[in-house]
Specification:
198 residues; alpha+beta; Trna Endonuclease, Chain: A, domain 1; 4-stranded antiparallel beta sheet; 10 strands; globular
Length: 198
């Protein structure tokens, strides 16, 4: 069942557009949104925040945990993803007389429909408050035909492979002439210097 929700967005100039009906804010506005929360570092924090430079964006995108960084790496390798926005908006609704608010972790702009992503460790998904929040968020996000995804720990092997390959996404580090020669070479099955088979 769909629920009525509103969305608030922080624009590039710092202006906050508040409480628009969900599904009416133009995707262009959401695609250029600034992160909703202020980026934080503080002594003793239990998670590792930072910025990552995805080749998809050719700009830095923030993350608030190593798990969020993992999702960012996977998004950067997904050919359908054309844009990545961190903490893209604040969703708000009223349920059972209470105002509920939630800031998703990422908005992925794809060739099909936008994908709203929440990142959470698997062991926390069964907590009632998390299940409740993700439940109403899913209903709101999917009501205009968008996709909603809850993302947890990936396969360790797949993550390590993507981490290894991520360094090679920075095309300015490589000679265009050398890349052209390599692209024309038959390298399948040839071991790399790192011991991996191509």
């Amino acid at each position: 069942m769909d629920i009525a929700a509103t969305v608030s967005v922080r624009r590039q100039n710092g202006q906050v557009v508040e409480d628009r009906f969900w599904g009416t804010e133009p995707i262009k506005s959401l695609a250029s949104a600034m992160p909703w929360r202020t980026f934080r570092w503080y002594k003793g924090q239990k998670h590792y925040s930072g910025t990552y430079w995805p080749a998809t964006m050719r700009d830095h995108v923030i993350y608030e945990s190593r798990l969020e960084l993992s999702r960012l790496l996977f998004a950067d390798f997904d050919l359908s993803v054309r844009g990545i926005v961190a903490q893209p908006f604040l969703l708000k609704t009223v349920l059972e007389g209470k105002v509920c608010r939630h800031i998703p972790d990422y908005l992925l702009l794809t060739g099909q429909v936008p994908v709203v992503v929440d990142v959470k460790p698997l062991h926390r998904l069964s907590k009632p408050e998390v299940a409740f929040t993700f439940g109403w968020t899913r209903r709101a996000v999917e009501s205009p035909g968008w996709k909603y995804e809850v993302w947890s720990e990936p396969s360790a092997v797949e993550l390590e492979n993507i981490r290894f390959l991520a360094g090679y996404r920075r095309d300015w580090l490589f000679s265009p002439e050398v890349l052209e020669v390599l692209r024309g070479a038959e390298l399948e099955g040839v071991p790399s210097a790192a011991g991996r088979v191509l």
